[in-house]
Amino acid sequence: MTLAAFWPVRLNGFIEYDDQDYVTANAQVQRGLSWEGVAWAFQTGHAANWHPLTWLSHMLDVQLFGLNSAGHHLTSVLFHIANATLLFLLLRRTTGATWRSAFVAVLFAVHPLHVESVAWVAERKDVLSTFFGLLAIWAYACYAEKSKVQSPTSKLQSPESGVRNSRPDVQGSGFEVQGSRFPSVASGLQLPSWVLYVLSLGLFAFSLMSKPMLVTLPFLLLLLDYWPLGRWQPGSGTGRKARHLLLEMAPFLILSILSILATLHVQQAAMSFYRQLPFPLRAANAVISCVRYLGKTLWPEDLAIFYPLPAHWPAWAVLGSALLVTTLSMLALVGSRKRPYLPVGWFWFLGLLVPVLGLVQVGVQSMADRYTYLPLVGIFIILAWAGTECLETLRIPVRPRIIAAGLLLSLCAALTHSQLRFWRSTEAIFTHAIAVTQDNWLAHYNLAVLALRRYQDTQRGTVEKQVVTLGTAPRSPSESGPAPRDYLAEIVFHCQETLRSKPGYPDPRVTLAKALTEQGRIDEARAQLELAARLDPNNAETHQNLAEILQRQGRVADAISEYKAALKLRPDWEPVLNNLAWMLATHPGSEVRNGAEAVRLARHACALTSRTNLWFLHTLAAAYAEIGDFPQAVTAVEEARRLAAASGRPELAALAETRLELYKARQPMRSP
Fold this sequence. Notes:
By secondary structure, this protein is mostly helical.
C-alpha cells in the first residue's frame, strides 16, 4: 500500500532547494563512497548540520544510481516502508494489539503530512534518523523485558486475546502476558540485557548522526516505560523505580546533550539570520504550530514546502492555541489511570516536537510538514486506541469498523498520491506553495532564482560569442538572443513580491539587479546593489555584480574597489580574479593598469583551475604582456590555442592566433 501510494515519486526530479547542497552540487557526495568521503562526512558541518550517516547514505546512492533521481527517491521510499514495518512490529509486540498497531503503522505510512519527508531527497535524514530511532526503541524494549522483575500480579492477558485486564492502568502490556498468541518483544533476541542496553544506546547515536531530531528520545523512553512497557506505575516504591529509570536514562541524556551542542555549533549561520526574533514571537509560534500540526493531521490540505513566519500572531490565536494545548494536556493526565495511552500518545507528540518548534529558531519557517514524521505516531496511537474503545462502547460490529478504517486509510493514500505531483519539479513545488499560503516570500525568491538560471542557460551561446569578441564577460542586452519565455519579467515579478514581504532581505535585490541589467535598466540595477551592499556588506556576490555595472558605466576606480571587496570575502573566486586581472592588464588608461598585480591575480585564477580555462590563460597572457614578459605571454596563448583546438572550437583557436601575432610583435593587449 505504501509503495502504491508513493509510486509516482519515481518520476520526480531533484528540487533546487537543499538538494544541491546534499547531492546535485555537492562535489564530495558526487564522488560516491570512499575513505576520503567517510572522513569528510564525520568532519564537516556542511549544510548547517552534523549528520555523517546521512552524507554516507547520499554517497551510497550516488555510487549505485549516479544522479538518476529515481534511484534516490526509491531509497527514501524503502526506508519509509521499513519504518512503517518497524512501527507495526514494535507496537504489536509491546501492546499485543495487532489491528490497532496495524492501523497506526498504515496511517503513518500513507498520511499526506509525510510526503515531504519521503519525496524530498534532502530530507533523507528524516527517514534515516527515524529508522535508527525505532530500532533503538526496539532494543530498549527488549532490554526492559529482560531486566524487568516479574511478579505474579503483573502477568496480564492481552486485550485482544479475549480476556479483560483487571487493572486498566496497565491494560495492553504485551510483555507479561500468559497464554498470549503473540511472542514477547525479545523473542529471537537471546542476548544479555546489558548487550541490549548498549545496542539501544548505539542505535540512538546512529539516529542522532542521521539527524538530531530525536534528542528527546530519552523522554519518550520514559513514557514507554509507563505504557506499554509497564515498568513503573503509581504506588509503593514509585520514587525508587523513578530514580532507577532516570539513572538508566543518563547515558541517553549525555548523547542528547552532545548532539545539541554539536548542532548549535554547526547551525550558527542558520540561527543568526533570525537571532533578532523576540522570544515572545517564537513562543507564540511554537504554541500555534502545535495546533496547526493537529489541524493538518486531521484535515491535510494546503500543504506546502515552506510556511512563512509572520511578523506577529493575533492575540486571540495565541491564547486560544495555548488554552487548547493546556486543556488536551490536562485531559491526557486525568485519563491516564484508565487510559495510559492518552498521556503517552499526547506527550509523544509534544515531546518529539519540542526541538523543532522554533523556541531556538533555526531557519526561516514557522513550521514544516517534515517535523511531524515521527511525532504524529503519538496522535495515531490515541486515534487507534481511543477509537477502538468508542466503537466497542457503541457496539459497532467488526465489519463496518474494517470498512471505515479501510476507507480512511485509502483516502489518505489517495491524498498522498495526489500530493506527490507537486514535488515533481522545483517550479511545481514553489508555485503550489504560493497558491496555498500567503506572502510566501521564499517561494517567490526560489522561482526568481530558477527563472534566472533558465534565462542564463538560453543566453549561454550569446555570452560565448561576446567573450570571443571582447575577451571578457560583461553582457550587452542588445546582443542577447530571445528567450522562449520572458524569464526576465518573471525574475522581476518574483523578486518584487519577495521584497514586498522581506524588504530587508538583500539576496533578492542582487537577483533583481541581474534581471534589470539584462533589461538595460543599469541605474536601477546599481541602486538595488548599493542598497543590498548596505544591508549586508559581507555578501561577495553583491560586490561582484556592482563591480561589473560600475565597470560598464566607466567608473573604473569604483569597480576595482568593489572587485577587491569581493575578493576579500572570497579570495579564491576564479571569475572575479580573472575579471579584475583583465581590467588591470588591458585598460586603456595607464593610471588604471597594474601589470604586476594583474599577473598575480591571473596566476592564482589559472592555478585554481589547473590551467584548464582558456579565458583565464588569455588574461594571464595579457598580464605578462603588460609587464613586458612577451615570451610568457606567447606561451600562455599557445596553451589557450591548444585547449580551443582540443575542444573543437575553431573560432576560439582563431582568436588565439590573432593574439599570438600581437604578442609576437611585442604589443600589449588593450580592451575596447
